Each structure stands twice: as structure tokens, then as C-alpha cells.
Amino acid sequence: MTAVLSLETGEPLVQRIAELSGENVYACYQCGKCTADCPFGFSPQRVVRHLQLGQLDEALAHESVWSCAGCFACTAACPKGVDPVRIMRALRSMDGKHHGNRRRSWLFANNHRLARLGSATAPLSNWLLRLPGTGLAQHHLLGIHRRRSLPPFARPSFPAWFREHEPAGGGHRGTVLLFHDTFMDFNAPQTGIAAVELLERAGFRVELTDSVCCGRPMISKGYTEQARAHARANVERLHEQVRDGAFIVGCEPSCLLTIRDEYAELVGPELREQARAVSERSLLVDEFLAMLAEQGELELKFDGGGRSVIFHGHCHQKAYADPSKSLELLRLAGYEPEFVNTACCGMAGAFGYELEHYSLSKAAGGRELFPAIEAQPDARVVVMGISCRQQIEHFTGRRPYHLAQALRDALVES
User: Where in 237-353 does DSSP place strands (E)?
Assistant: First the structure.
């Protein structure tokens, strides 16, 4: 019989994992729900069991540690609140070695730099992405599957649009800070434009956050120190911006929830209180608007005409927020939403782009999500996450919309 140890035993391996992940591996009682719910067939349960037994080498050798997509489906499934994703991330950082294609990892971790350059040089950059042979080159040189297309770059960028736009209304309800993520800025400015129009019509003056990339891509690719630097920079800047009580509102679940749920651990003790203060003022756009609606203070009128909507919840949204807020707003806007409560769409950030994971990515979405979308050709597909939208468009040919776009399109004059 294996003795059940506690973190107070002083066992160095468990202590180190706890420090790096913020998780107690002995809280797991091996129910198996994390493994059963993994959309890619990995076994985080087995990794945690190796750690409970003090078997570091076996844990590090397990495929799940190195192939984990970081979708947090296992986290959402755990009845004890254990986060296997953070445990496996801690293991990767302890190993000290790079696994996988280094060029690809650097590219995805530094997407904020490449996207800025791509946007500044569009449409030339988009033409280069479409050149014959580009897919094969990325397949063999970068390990990005040849059938995947990198998202096109937008010009003008969202910050450029924002500087030139004429605000609607006088902002009588105060200021809201919009966290403008990399994809919003340089690939999908239409999301940010829709969010600004919604918030201004609701009576707020919108300002952009003084921020850098949230660090989520760096975390997922093992560039932890780079992510810490970004987290510290953001906490210092955002803490100044929320001093007067303004809310930070974000449209991309992965980015906003990284700020809200991970910065306090990333920044270290010297900035932990500031990180918590920032976290308390950080909301997804659906959470912010639903909060106003619950308080009877949502100064917006809608008419969605009863149109059918398929809503897919982003994995981070399901693990650390509440997709029902999105559904409430879609109903309020006059739509008829159906929540397709499936597992991960299969993209999970960069996971679905990777050559060795393409078939797993396709299979994950093909179990329930793609058939549900294809069964309703006239329904509008609404998804919060950019990676989910890319995945759905790639495999179904349907163009998904962000929630902010769907709500903005249903607005009517007061």
C-alpha cells in the first residue's frame, strides 16, 4: 500500500512541483476524470500518479507531459480542483531541455513580434503567405502542417483604427480599459472594433490598455522567463490604470484569463498584491456586459430577429470563467442560441498547427463540434476564442463570429 504523503513532509520533489505549479499533487485521488475528458487521449492522471510515488523520471518520460495541448479540459473535469496542465508545465520547466521544433516554438512564442511586422507590411506579407510552396516550406522547416494557413495580417491594425475613430457618445458612465490582444491588434481588428462600438453605445469611454503581449504563447512553449517579464511589465502598467476603479475588459479568453488567473504566481511576491488588484478588475467582455445586465444597467437595445446561433465555449472560458454569460447575452440580444458543449475544438492555441498533432486536432473537433455545425447550415456560429474560430473555418468552411460581433450586429437605436 502506498503511503499518502502531504506537502508538509518536506519531500523535495513535491515541494518543487508545488512551488512551480501552485498545485498539490496529493489532492488528486486518481478518479480518472481528467484522462477521460482529455480530447486528445492523453493521460494526465498517470503523470500525477508518478509524482505521487516520487517517480520523477517516469513522469518526465510520459508522452502526456510533452504533448499536452494546454486546453484545460482536464482542469475543468477535476472534482478536487487540481490543475494537471500547470503540473505538467512545471515538469517541463524542471527538465531544462527543449522538446520539439525549436524554430516553431520560437515563432509561436514570439507571435506578437511577427504579427506586428506582418501587419505593417501587409498586403505584401499576406501575398508571401499564399505563395505556392509556402505550405511545404513551413511543413518541413517549421513543423507546421502544410494544410494549415497562418492567419492573414490586417492593415490598418486595430490600434491604428482606434486612434482615428470618432467615439460614439460622451462616455457618461466612465472609462473601460480594453485589453487589446495580439490577434485583435494585427489579425482580427473587427473583434476590437465591435467591442468598442458595444462599450461606447453602452455609455462608456473606451481606452486601450498600456500593455504588451499577455505571455500566454510563451507559457505554452516553455519560454517561462520571457512570460514572467511580460507579466511584470503588464502588472506594473495595468495597476496604474485601474487605480481609479476602471475595469479591464478582454475579448480573448486565453489572454484575459492569463492576466486574471496566472499573473499572481508569475510575477513573484514583490508584485503579487498588484497582480491581485489587476485580477479583481479584469473581466471578459461577456462577463462585463452580463454584470451590467444583472444590475439592470445595460443601456443597450437589441433585435437579433430570433436567428439561430451555435455557440462553442472556449476551453479556458469553460475552465476558468462561465460560458453561460455568453448564452445569456445572446438570448438578451434576440438570438436563439444552442450551446454545443463539446470538448476542445482541437486547435488549442498552436497545438493544431503542429505537424505531429494535426490528426489529433482534426479528430478532437470531428467527434462532436464539426458535425453539430454542419448539421445547422443556416445558424450563425459564435465563438470567443480566435484559435477556435480558425479551427472551425479550416475544417468546416464556415465563418465564425466573435460574441462581440454578434451582439454589435443586433444593436438597434435606443
Answer: 247-250, 282-284, 301-302, 308-312, 336-339
C-alpha cell belonging to residue 223: 519560454
In a domain, residue 407? The reply is yes
Whether 177 and 204 have beta carbons less than 8 Å apart is answered as no
Written as one letter, the residue type at 8 is E
Angle at 21 between CA 19 and CA 24, to 5 degrees: 80
Q: Which three cell numbers stand for residue 128?
A: 508571401
> Which residues pair with residue 250 across a beta bridge?
179, 284
Q: What is the domain range of residue 393?
A: 299-412
Q: Which of 45, 80, 95 corresponds to the end of one domain? A: 95
Going across the sheet that includes 282-284, the strands are 205-208, 175-179, 247-250, 282-284
Length of the chain: 414
Write out the DSSP string of 364-399: HHHHTHHHHHHT-TTSEEEES-HHHHHHHHHHH---
Check if the beta carbon of residue 321 is closer than 8 Å to that of residue 287: yes
Among 95, 115, 132, which residue terminates a domain?
95
Report if residue 4 sits inside a domain: no
Handedness of CA 296, 301, 306, 308 (dihedral sign): negative
Helix, strand and coil content of the chain, in percent to the nearest 5, comes to: 55, 10, 35
User: pLDDT (tens digit, 9 = 90+) per residue, 378-404?
Assistant: 999 999 999 999 999 999 999 999 999
Domain assignment of residue 159, yes or no: no
Strand 308-312 vs strand 380-383: parallel, antiparallel, or unpaired? parallel
Paired residues of 383 in beta bridges: 312
Q: How many domains does the chain have?
A: 2
- pTM surpassing 0.85? yes
- Determine the Cα–Cα distance for residues 168 and 299; give it in Å rounded to an integer: 13
Q: Render pLDDT for 315-351 as a digit per residue (tens, 0 to 9).
A: 999 999 999 999 999 999 999 999 998 889 999 999 9
CA 219 – CA 66 distance, rounded (Å): 13
Cα gap 168→84, rounded to integer Å? 45
Query: Measured between alpha carbons, how far is 153 from 314 in angstroms, rounded to an integer?
Result: 23
Query: Where does 64-185 show beta strands of DSSP type E?
Result: 175-179
Is residue 359 one of the residues assigned to a domain?
Answer: yes
